[in-house]
Structure formats: C-alpha cells, structure tokens
Amino acid sequence: MEIVHVYTKLRGEFGRQCLFSDRPAELLVDVPPDPSLGLQFIQKTPRDQAVQACRDMSEHQVNTERFESDSCGINHVEGGWPKDVDPDEMEQTIRFRKKVEKDEGYMNSILQLGSIMEHCIRQNNAVDIYQLYFEDEEEVEESLEPPSAKTINVFRDPNEVKRTVTGLSWHPDGGRKLAAAYSCLEFQRATRDMSLDSYIWDIENPNRPEMTLKPASPLVCLDYNPKDPHTLVGGSYNGQIAYWDTRRGSQPVELCSVEQSHRDPVYKIIWLQSKTGTDAFSASTDGQVLWWDVRKLSEPTERLVLDPGREGNLDRALGAISLEFEATMPTKFMVGTEQGVVFSCNRKAKTPSEKIVCTYDGHHGPVYALQRNPFFPKNFLTVGDWTARIWSEDIKESSIMWTKYQMAYLMDACWSPSRPSVFFTVKTDGVLDVWDILFKQNDPTLSLKVCDKALYSLRVQDNGRLVACGSQQGGATLLEMCSGLSTLQKNEKSLLAAMFERETKREKILEARQREIRLKERSRSEQSREDDGGREDGEESPDQLIDRAEKDFYSVVETELRRRRDDMSKHSVKEKREKKRIEPQDRTG
C-alpha cells in the first residue's frame, strides 16, 4: 500500500481541549471504618537513619622507621708526643719531660693555671655538691593516684621462627640488663630451622641484643649469679646444665655431660648461698633435684629424688617444675611438682628420706610458680591451674588465702620486692594482673592486656619498679609500675603481718574442727561395730566368703552345662527316630 498524503500535528494538540471551571464539592464514595480489619494491620518497624552534614574524615597511624643504634668502644692510648720520641721508651719520655719543664713558657702557664685550680679546689672543699639535704626527713605521703603501668620497651626474638620466652633473669648490678631464655615447649613443634640461641638485652636498646648465648640445646631457664654479675647458669631442653662467663664470649665455659644430667627439660635453676658463690641447684620433670658446682660440671655434687613415699624410687617420683630458695634460710628449699604438690625439704638432713620434711597439696595442675614472701618468709605464694594461693608453713592442709578461679590459666607469679602485700601474675590470655591483698582480695588491683598471645614468664626488678613479661610469640615486654605499686606504704608491714596471723589462726581453727568431726565419725563407727559384735562373731571372714561364692558359681555353671548336654542328647535321639520312620515310607512309595 502506498502512502498518498501525510498529515502531521503536534502531540500536545491531540484530543479535546481541557476546560476547567469552579463547582461545589461532591461526595463520590464513602467508606466507613471496619474494626475487623484492624486485627490484620501490621505495623511497620521504624528505622532511624542519621545524616551527617560534615565532611567524612579519616584517621591513620604511621610509625616512623626505628632508629638503630650501635655501641662502640674506644681504647685510649697516651699520645701528644713528638715524632722523634717513642712513648714506650721510658728514657726518651723522661728526657723530653725535663726539657719541657725547663722551658719558660711551660713555667708561666703552670703559674697562671695554678691560681685558677686553687680557687676551684677551695670552692669544692667549701661546698659539697653531692650532699643530700633531705635525707633524714620522713617521706610525705603522695596523693592517692589510681594504679597504673606503662610499657617501656618490647624485646622481640630476632629470628624468623618465633619461640616462647620461657625464662627471664635481671642483671644483679642495678638491673640494666635482662637475660631471656628462648625455647619451644610444645611437644614435637620444634622445627629444624629453629634457632637455639638465647639473648642478653640492654633495657635501653630494644633494637639489637647486647649478647648472644649459644647453648647446645635451647635454654628453658637461666639465672644471673647474684655475687658475680658476669656469670650465668642455664638449664637446657635436653636436661644439660651450662655455665657462661660473659667476659669469655657466647659459648658456655662449662657444660655437664648428657649421662650425668637430667633426663627431662630443666624447668628451674637457682644459685645457692655459699662462700664460693659457685653452687647452684636445678629441678626437672624427671623427678630429681640436682646440686652443682659450676667450676666442675662433670657430675652433680648431690641428688634428691622426689618420691612421696620417701624411699628414693625414681619410678614413683613426681616431676619438678618450680623451685624456691631463700638466702635467709640456707638449709631449706621448696619444690613445686606437675601433680600440684609442693615439697618442703631440708638439705642438711642425714638420710634422703628425712630431706623431704612435708608436702602441701592444693592445686589441680602443675605448680608453675613458687616463691616465699621477701618480708615474711614463712608465707609463700604458689600458682597453678586457675588460682594463686598464699600458704603458711604451719598449715599443711590448705592455703590461708587464695584468688578466685580465673577464666584463663595462670603461668607464672612473683612477689614485689619493695611492697610485701603486692604480687604479680600472668595468664594465657596475655593479661598481667597486679594484686594488692591489703586493698582487695577478690579482684586484681590492676589488669593490663600486654599482648594477644599467652604470657609464660615474669620477673620483677629488685627495686620493684620494672616488670618484664615473656610471651609465647617471643616478645619480652618491659613495663614500669606507678609509684603507688612500687613504694612501701605506711604501716604496710604491720597490717600484712596481722592479716597473715589472722588467716593462719582461722585455718588452724577450721583444721581442728575437721579433726574433731573425723574423730566423732570414727568413734561412732567403732560403737556400731561393738553393738553388732554378737552377729559379727558368727560371720565368715572375707576370704571364706570369696571361696564360698566361687564354689557356688562353679556349681551353678556345672549344673547348667550338664542340663544342656542332656537336652542335646535327647534332641539327637529324637531326630534319629524320626529319620528311621521316614526311610521305609520312601522305599514303599
């Protein structure tokens, strides 16, 4: 079909033109309310949306590159001599000195400088610049500030494969250095490329260790000699004991043989109070405590087997995991075991059975930490499972004070050396707890999240100000406590002594009450036995009862077997008869 004509018009001109006019309102539809529909009404959940007219901001944190420092030493030798004078030749130096002393310029210089030096010397003699003006005055109590702590440094394991910091020891001369033992205690988790080294750190320089200790096996524990700050002793994962002198390099000076060492990892080693300052003793999970003289580590000088039966049987010995030695009690020492038992021992006892004096049983797991209070040595602190407990030597049945069960496992603890009522604990959730038992007993005074990984070791500096914590990821964190947690408070010793005495008396009363209840129960059971005496005389002994029960049992069994044989024989005879009846019928058929 062809298009003959095309007619075009704008779209806005299509249709009829709209004409509007005014008219009164008209009701078209009236819908009355229906109450039944209200039951089906579902109210829409309101939603609030906040609108911010400000421009979006972003915050970023940037760490600058760590400044690496290096320590260098310079040897100064005598110089300033002319080229023709050899300072090592005494005759030439004496001759040159006499020549200079006769020079007029030298004499004039000495006379001018002499008057100036004389004035300075007289001034120093008149005023003592090192005088302590307020030495005799009593310390004014500081304002009560909330307990706090801040991180000073973090000493990280420099190796790629990180290891756990299993042991820490402060340098005895002012605590300027910190020795750390690194090892992997998880069973069969140690890799071949894992380093064996442990390190000594300068607390001012976390970038690089000051010295490297190179043992034959990874160190689990180590300890500075309190009498000689240059020497250390360490316990290895394979049970060997190693001795270092830092002036003689990174290699151990003495190392005990494998045959004479422990058979399990050495979890604790401590220096002993002796005249020579060379005696130490170690504990291991093989159930032995060994004494050593570091001048001759070929064999131990003494040995103790931790057998609860006091018979020296190594097969029944309990594995040791912590040690305690107090210098004021040179003959006594304590050992914490894997089974939660604490041994109190006396080294000077004549026989091995007498060396184990008594035991304290109060933990459900290994006793990871054990330390006497430095101000009250009769009271000691233990840590195991989920609690920390304070004991008195006089109470064997139970501890006198304890913390409530924590959510994470406790791995180490120690007393503050400056405040008798303060102790520190570390847990597997990376938290350091500071407890002040005079302030409150149920909860720690201060809790700090040190790191995300578990904390395994803990040591406090001698002044109580610095605390070092070792973690599972190989970091040793150095924290500084506030003055309130490190300075001795007014009347603190007397208040704590009264608290320990009160709690000890309470436990003694409870122990006596328990003893009375046991005696009453025993007397009641004996009385009931006497009342049933006539009946008991005619009764058989336990052996006779067992024999009679066995005879009755075997007779019943034989009777049952005989009955079954008879039934089987009757059944077989019956089957033969039926078979004979069937065979003739088949033949006739």
Automatic annotation (TrEMBL):
Keywords: Cell projection, Cilium, Cytoplasm, Cytoskeleton, Dynein, Microtubule, Motor protein, Repeat, WD repeat
Domain of life from the UniProt record: Eukaryota
Recorded family membership: Belongs to the dynein intermediate chain family.
Keyword Cytoplasm: yes
Molecular function per GO: dynein heavy chain binding; dynein light chain binding
Compositional bias per record (Basic and acidic residues), positions renumbered to this chain: 520-536, 545-589
Pfam families found in the cross-reference section: WD40 (PF00400)
Stretches for region Disordered: 520-589
CC per GO annotation: microtubule; outer dynein arm
Keyword Cytoplasm: yes
Name under which the protein is recorded: Dynein, axonemal, intermediate chain 2b
Main location: cytoplasm
Organism the protein comes from: Anabas testudineus
Annotated InterPro entries: Dynein_IC (IPR050687), WD40/YVTN_repeat-like_dom_sf (IPR015943), WD40_repeat_dom_sf (IPR036322), WD40_rpt (IPR001680)
SMART domains: WD40
Record's subcellular location: Cytoplasm, Cytoskeleton, Cilium axoneme
A Gene Ontology BP annotation from the UniProt entry: cilium movement
